[in-house]
């Protein structure tokens, strides 16, 4: 099971949001490169980066900053936020990003997603963000009428590396990952699941460890607020 620290970029700073609200955020690093280097020095295997500006605007707003972070980090990088076409996706892969996270387009442009999964097998992560049980898009500003299981199973037969499942109501709240919903999803789809949204401490990781279909867990605010010892968590990795 992978422990995956998160760096969310907003206005070129490393931040964490509360429940996906881009007007309610806390800045943790003025220079995200410092955070990336710190995680690299700790021996992190994979880093989760989200371009929040890009997610809202549908553009790769922080591309040049992410390029510098990839060069600095020296670990597997997964990036999401504003990747809406093949040109943007390929640009990230060309600078050394290992995995591209597709979110809004998973709902709104399935043909592009299927094309990406076909051209880059095992390098595409489906980012599924749920709000009240339904998938949210456009940087969490819009709620769709489709459930996570329905959405993911519509891609059966295509090759994705994993699915990142985020319960928006818990994200940034330190109330704990929605373990029940995450495990239920993992049992209902064929892709491995990365748990996200609200991780509050080592107990969440232990609750997911060794469970069928769980690839990893993303930690953001819990680390930045000192609620979890990342070195201790990393020792639990398979």
Short description:
InterPro entries: Aldolase_TIM (IPR013785), His_biosynth (IPR006062), HisA/PriA (IPR023016), HisA_bact_arch (IPR006063), Isoase_HisA-like (IPR044524), RibuloseP-bd_barrel (IPR011060). With 238 residues, the chain is α/β, with parallel strands linked by helices.
Features of the shown structure:
single chain, 238 residues, alpha/beta, TIM Barrel, eight-stranded parallel β-barrel, 12 strands, globular
End-to-end separation in angstroms reads: 5 Å
Provide the low-confidence segments as ranges.
Answer: none
Number of helices: 11
Number of domains: 1
CATH architecture title: Alpha-Beta Barrel
Could you give me the name of the CATH homologous superfamily?
A: Aldolase class I
Which structural class do the helices and strands define?
A: alpha/beta
Radius of gyration from the CA trace? 16 Å
CATH topology: TIM Barrel
For the record, the CATH class is Alpha Beta
Protein name: 1-(5-phosphoribosyl)-5-[(5-phosphoribosylamino)methylideneamino] imidazole-4-carboxamide isomerase
GO cellular component, one term: cytoplasm
Subcellular location: Cytoplasm
EC number: 5.3.1.16
